Each structure stands twice: as structure tokens, then as C-alpha cells.
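Researcher: Let's run the pair from yesterday's discussion. Sequence first, then C-alpha cells, for each.
Model: Starting with the first of the pair.
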Amino acid sequence: MADRGITYVAWDEGIKEAERSALSAKKFGLKTCLIGSAYAGDVFDKFIMTEQELKCAAQKVFLYHLSPWAETLYMDSDTTVLGDLTFGFDMARRHGIAVTFAPACFVNFHWGLNRENLPPEVPDYNGGVIFFKRRHPKMRDFWRLLQKELERVDWADKRHNLVYNDQSMLSAVLYKKGLNPYVLPQNWNLRPQYGLVKGYGPVKIWHSRYPIPEDFDTQQSGRWTLVVKNIPKEGSWRARNRDNDKNRI
């Protein structure tokens, strides 16, 4: 079996959240690793301690190179694995990196990276679900380059921080370096709280702190719609699942 697994970067309360995500991944036979300053639990297969101080969440990319797996899925802690992720790892092995579009989809319109002189059509890739192969030619020095871009950020300036972060610069660096990632559909990184409430087929990763609706058949092969109520206070959802055979597109 390939040396592959999921890596999280978390601290404080984020560790409990990452543990819940890791437990969902274990249902599909996936190994997990936590990178952080301290950990006393036993949920993760590996723990890598770092003394590097992170001034904000965006600096978590400074630690991605520590992932112990030859093929890594970096995931944010607010995720739930709902299906087999083999294809995502396979695409990272083939293409170096596999990602999904962010709901806001255009990096300039989302983050306002006007100083980077990017074409307005450059897509915005989500930074919370990233498959990558460590020794693929595309990934040679990639995290170092991304870190270099982020090191010029004035983290004390909140306006600057909202523009330059791990997600916006991920998209910018991929474009600037001419690296074409393999792009997975929204089912691999479902963000319903940002408008991704209609889809087709099984959901692989639920990326939200809102609970999965009890009536949502996440493994169906047909079209579905999530109906939201009381957002953002409670995040109460219900699902409209449709007959698979009558809704082919």
C-alpha cells in the first residue's frame, strides 16, 4: 500500500476538532498525523511536534513540509471524511497536486490581490483540502515558495491579512509558477455554508462546522439539494434527495 495519509496542523481547541475529523478518516482505513506544539491523546497515528510559533492560521503552510507521508492529504480540522479518497491520492501521485475550487472561485474578486497583477480569471482554490505528492517534480520547493510569499505579509495589519493568506497565495503561486493542479469536483470539499447546496453524486468530504443533515444521503448517485434554515446562528439543514434514475444529467 502506498505511503499516504492525512495531515492536520492544529492547536488548542482545534485539536479536538481535528480528532473528530481523523476518526471519520479511520473508517476508510486512512492514517492520520497531527502537527502541533503539544498533544497528549492517541487518536492520530503520528504526532510531529514543532516549536515554530504561528502568528495566525495562514502560517500553517510553513509546516506542510513536515508531513510524514509520501502522498499527503492536508485537511483543515473542520472536515468529515464520508467516502473513499483513493482517487484524490492517485491524482496527486500523477499530477503532483490535486485541489478543489473555492466557492468564491475567482481569487482576485474574492481576495482583491490587485498588487499581484493576476488576470481576473485566475481561479481561487480552497486551501483546506489539498492532496500532494512530496517528491513530484511539480512540488519541488513548492511549499518553500509559498512560504516566501507569505513571509512578506504584515500580520499586524488586519486588512493586509485578509488579502494575503494561505488560500489566496496558494492560487497565486500555482498560477505564477505555471503549475496546473488536478481539480476535483465540489463533492471532494463540500462547503454548504458558502452556497454549495446543490450537487450530484456522493460527497467525499464535508467541510463545515455545521452538522450533516440526518436525512442527507451522502452516498447517493443522483441529484440533491440542501435546504438551509437559521444560518448563520444555528446552521440547521435538511436535505432533498431525489430518485437516482429520474434525474440523469
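Model: Moving on to the second of the pair.
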Amino acid sequence: MTSKLEGRPGRGFACIVTGALSTQTGAAVGSFAFSTLGPLGVVAVRQIAAALILCSIARPRLRSFTGAQWRPVILLAVFFATMNGALYMAIDRVGLGTAVTIEFLGPLAVAIWSSRRGRDILAAGLALLGVILLTGPGPTTDFVGIGIALIGAVSWAGYILTNRVVGQRVPGVQGTAAATILSSLGLLPVLVMIIWHTQPPLEAYLFAAVAGLLSTAVPYALDLIVLRHISPLIFGVGMSLHPLFAATIGLVVLQQQLPLLAWAGVLLVVLSNGLTLTGPQSAAGAAPRLRLPRRGGRRRSASPM
């Protein structure tokens, strides 16, 4: 598969787009279980799936971790759980497109702060205008839902920054795998309580499991395949499309209608992400890539989850 991507950016971009569509489709499918499992219950199942996938790949040696390694790993676990929990809770209140678009302000802020180019000032202004158009502040606005989405954005920014530290202190993706284990263990009591009190039907578990597969396993597998073979420009453009895909899937799958001004807001946030994550000295190009051990002493790259 990887040899077929060499020198063919179109195929690499197709893989990035597939991963983005899979991520947002998984979130939409997971929302079908909100009425019984609740957003946090779905997140708990997703985190357990992520932990199983990462541990099977990275096989973290937890007993060898030092205190200096555990501290950022624990913080990463907190950000991981908060980021996904806030996203799913926001989806339940304001819809998929709005929640994902607002949460993307987190990585956008990190990218702007990291590069500090002139074009990033324009990108920040476009993002702010986009969010204003998207949320349409008024008497009927769900400010709680928007606030939860903003918590997710802050958590995503913290996740990115903390993951850089973890990547420097812990080899491979062992740190990310360990953080995923901790976050899933932290959410496990919540899942047990939800199951005990509501006794969700079988289909709720199926929806949550599919969400874990589409939002975790498929994007992560595609990242492992393509990240070594695509340019930062292609990666940045693909990442910037997430809010647009979220709004479109919310419309098609969940029948979540957005007014015309809200669509304009989504497109402005997409444009601001594209300006920041592409071009010379972009944040996408400067972002560190984690390394996965491989047989024969060679190593392969992966992006943080």
C-alpha cells in the first residue's frame, strides 16, 4: 500500500479525506446511542477501543516509566478524556457540525501561536468571524453547548501541546497508549454506572462500538499508512476539511439543518485552518511525528491520536 502512495499525492489526500470522513461518521453513529448510553458512555466505549488498538500496536512498557514520564502521560490522559467527552456532549446539544467546528479552534490556536506568521492574523480573524456566523448569538442560542465545545477546544490544544512533551520523554507511541489506558480506566466507572441505571439495549453498544471503530481504528490505521508519504501541504488541507465534513454528515446522517450563515461560518473556519496549516513554515510541517518501532530495527511514523 505504501509503495503505491510514493509520488502520488492524490492517493495520499484520498486516504486523509477517508480518515476525516470516517472520524465524523463515527461521531454521527455514536450519537444514536446518546439516548441510552449518553455521550459519556459512548466516549467510554470509544476510549476502551482506542486503548485496545494502541496497546496492540505500541505494547507500552508501563513498569519502566519514570516519574518524569508519568506526569505528562497522566496530564495527556486528562486532556484525552476531556476532549472527547466535551465533543460528544456538545454534539448532543448543538449538533455535529457546530461542535466539531468550534472544537477545531483548539488546534488552530496552537498552530497560530506556533508559527506567528502574518497570514495567521488573517486566519484568526476569519475563524472568529466564522464562529460568530456559525453560532449566531441570540436569545435561543445554546450557550451551554457552545461553552462545552469551547472546553473541548481548549482540551484539544492542551492535548497537542502535552503530546509533544510525551513524545520527547517516552519512546514511540507508548506514552499515547498509556494515556489512552488511563483515560479509559477513568471513564470505566461512568460507563458501569450508566449501564447499571439505564440498562441500554444491545443496539446502543453496537452504535458505540462502531463509533470507536470509525473514529479511532480506521483513521489511525490510515495515518500509519500515509503520513510518511504525503507532504505537510496535503496533510494540512485534509485536516482543514474536518469541520465541513462534520457539518455535511450532520445534515445527511442526522438531519441537522444549519442556516446559510452557519454554513458560511463553517467555510470560514475551514479557510482559516487551511491558511494556517499550509504554506511555508506551516504548523503542519513543523509538527513532530511520533515513531513506532518495527521489526528489523526500522521505525515507522504515526500521528498523535
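Researcher: Give me one sentence on the second I can quote.
Model: Residues 196 and 280 are 53 Å apart (CA to CA).
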